[in-house]
Amino acid sequence: MSAPSVSIKLSYREALKQSLRDALKNDDRVFLMGEDVGRYGGAFAVSKGLLQEFGADRIMDVPLSESGFVGAGIGAALNGMRPIVEIMTVNFSLLAFDQIANNAATLLHMSGGQLNVPVVIRMSCGIGRQLAAQHSHSWEPLFAHIPGLKVLSIGTHEDARLMLLTALKEPDPVIIFEYTAMLNLEGEVPTDTISVDSIYAKVRRTGKDISIITYGAGVYKSLAAAAELAQIGVEAEVIDLRVLRPLDEKTIVASVTKTHRALLVEDACQSISVSSEVSARIMEKCFYELDAPVLRLCGVEVPIPYPKHLEDACIPQKEQIVTVAKKIVCHD
Amino acid sequence: MIDFRMPSLGADMESAFLREWKVKPGDVVKRGDIIAEVETQKGIIDIEVFNDGIIGDLLVKIDEKVPVGTLMTQIFSLEEVKTEVKKSGEAEVPKEKPNIHLEVHRASPLAKRIAAEKGIDLSLVKGTGTDGAITREDVDKVVVEQTSPKATSTKTAGENIRAAVAAAMSKSNREIPHYYLQTKVDMSGVLNWLAQENKQRGVKDRLLPIAPLIKAVAKALVEIPDLNAWWENGLQRKSGINIGFVVSLRTGGIIVPAIHDADKKSVGEIMQTLTDIISRVRSLKLRSSDLSDSTITITSLGDGAVETVYGVIYPPQVALVSFGGITDQPWADNGMLGVRPVLNIGLAADHRASDGNTGNLFLTLLKNLLKKPDLL
Fold first, then answer.
1. Cα–Cα distance measured from residue B175 to residue B164, given in angstroms and rounded to the nearest whole number
2. Which of A66, A86, A140, A311 is catalytic?
3. How many CB pairs under 8 A join A and B?
4. Å between A168 CA and nearest CA of chain B
5. pLDDT at residue B93 above 70?
6. Among the three residues A168, A190, A212, which one is the final residue of a domain in this structure?
7. Based on the domain organization, do B347 and B217 belong to the same domain?
């Protein structure tokens, strides 16, 4: 008999920090580089105290030049290191986009399989802190579009605690999206789980009536919606995609084959989103299992506004998830 | 576009079960085609259409019991469909069988798949999903209904017919103040004429005395329209002369199929119609047109010893003509006594609708018509 699962309560921020610490402890080749990650302790205090613990060689403050330091990270990876490059937020990632898309993602292919680029690039992402249009992007779909990258989205405390360690084992570039709005959120982290995969989507709640397929900030909102739906007798299955590229088609298809209905939820705006791709895969792989049209609840197609109430109105909220799921299942 | 409603198969019918659709939406039908089977107290009856056209949505489900007059489907003319298709900018409909759906049945892919597996016709499934789409649940419901025993009455066909006769005759005796008249007719002229006629006919086409009798009644009714009528909130004369002919069933009970427009049919045609409907009645394979629109009833008990029949009117009709057997009887003619084949003709009529004088005129006319069978 296995021991009962035990867990501790951690903030999302603390879980991320512990995973960084483990990564640095486990492997001498691992180092962290990014803007303000050292002396300032990270723009969101995720790396606070790590400089003191691991020293300036391994916790490296870099100049404000995303293209430069991401390129340096790629170079270090090519030369046998295991760099963790932090781009402060996804909003600045475009300045490094050429390095990511044209170098990190392509070198293995262009070198005929000779050059792996084992770099991990972390970035904070998402909206919900009243930072206005230029600092509230959800660009997961942008990166999930690019062949040669593995794209991970950390929507739970478990993944915040363990996903980085798995990402560092990858021989190729990995993009990790973390969610600024969740940093202070406390959650259970199982202490008996020592690793997670970076291959599969995960069923976070099982149900038979509808599959709510989501990732990132959508996971907890969807779980809350599922709990409310359960009170009216609708059993929703919540799937956390986790891996946005390559998509875990099998888990999606298995769930929809069971529930025959799907609602896709994400913060990124709807057009050409991850949900667009998931919806297409469902049509391609299990169309004849569908008992209702696949519906999406995504971000509104506008630059994100500054006022709180408008910001909230731009992304799917729990109430909408409940309403739309009910409409799909109960037709009212 | 024509609304096709559950027909009244006899004035005493209130409702019927739809048992089978013989068509599906988009099918092209011609006048007289059988499009459905319904079950009334008189058994399973084939329902015919009276117009050419294209069948619309089927609005009544299998085994659903619906009242007379319920909209069952709509029949669109080819022109209407062509206009419709042209409007939507598509190619012209091919002439033979336009493969069009007047309304697409929305169904989820899963519902369609299950329906195909279980052989369910989606046009008969009511959708409860978004915008009326058919969902798996809707199909499952039909599957369950079809696999569970049908909700039929526990009565046998014979018992049902008995009940229908009982209801109609009780109503008649309760509501209709009958008066009865009777006359005797020398049938030698008719029988001689029949003998001559039948010499020229094959065995199958031979005429029986009932054929000229029916024709004579029809001709007399042209002159006396007050007896070719219904009593419903007053007297309603009927333009067509549709003679209901009482057929007794071997299992007991009677059914009264109609000979439509009997005044316009030849004696030979009447005989043919009679042969046809009697065999359909006895095998309980009736068509809707057999049972609808009778305007008067004829009953004949000529096979036994009965000489005179005092009939009970079939409401809402206002008259019933009855024939006994033809028997040899002493007959005074031109001051001489002879023996003639004699038929007693009875008339039961509704005293609300007509008086004895009307009946008298009718029987007198009938008697005269039968003297000249060659003119019938």
1. 17
2. A66
3. 33
4. 42
5. no
6. A190
7. yes
**Mean pLDDT of all residues in chain B?**
85
Domain of A136, CATH number, reads 3.40.50.970
Q: Within an 8 Å CB–CB cutoff, is residue A288 touching chain B?
A: yes
In a domain, A178, yes or no: yes
Specify the number of domains making up chain B. Answer: 2
Residue B118 contacts A where some CB pair is shorter than 8 Å: no
Task: Give the residue from chain A lying closest to B133, CA to CA.
Answer: A292
Helices B210-223 and B267-282 meet at what angle, rounded to 10?
110
- Please check whether residue A245 lies inside any domain of the structure: yes
Domain of A266 in residue numbering reads as 202-330
Low-confidence residues of chain A: pLDDT under 70: 1-4, 332
Within 219-278 of A, beta carbons closer than 8 Å to B belong to: 260
Best to test chain B binding among A209, A283, A291, A324 (most B CBs inside 10 Å):
A291
Measured between alpha carbons, how far is B270 from B289 in angstroms, rounded to an integer?
A: 16
Contacts of A331 in chain B (CB under 8 A): 128-130, 135
Report the alpha-carbon angle B331-B336-B338, nearest 5.
40
Cα–Cα distance between B267 and B213 in angstroms, integer? 9
Q: Do B117 and B67 share a structural domain?
A: yes
Unique residue bearing structure tokens 């994400």: A266
Going by C-alpha positions, the residue among A90, A87, A133, A127 that lies closest to residue A266 is A127
Is the domain of B140 the same as that of B238?
no
Shared-domain flag, residues B282 and B344: yes
Burial B182-213 (b: 16+ CB within 10 A, else e): bbbbbbbbbbebbeebeeeeeeeeebebbbbb
Whether the predicted pLDDT of B94 surpasses 50: no
Q: Where are the alpha helices (DSSP H) in chain A?
A: 12-26, 50-54, 66-78, 97-98, 107-110, 140-144, 157-167, 218-231, 249-259, 274-286, 308-314, 318-330
Mark B319-352 as b/e (b = at least 16 C-beta within 10 Å). bbbbbbbbeeeeeeeeeeeeebbbbbbbbbbbee
CB-nearest partner of B136 from A291, A327, A331: A291
pTM, full prediction: 0.59
Task: Please check whether residue A1 lies inside any domain of the structure.
Answer: no
Residue B337 has a pLDDT of 93
Total domain count, chain A: 2
Contact A293 B136 (CB under 8 A): no
Give the DSSP per-residue string, B211-228. HHHHHHHHHHHHH-GGGS
Range of the domain at B142: 2-147
What's the burial of A308, exposed, middle or buried (CB within 10 Å: 0-12/13-18/19+)?
exposed
- Mark whether B99 and B189 lie in a shared domain: no
Is A196 a member of any domain? no
What confidence tens digit (pLDDT) does each residue in B14-64 have? 888 888 888 888 888 888 888 888 888 777 888 888 888 888 888 888 888
Residue B159 inside a domain? The answer is no
Residue A2 burial by Cβ neighbours in a 10 Å radius (0-12, 13-18, 19+): exposed
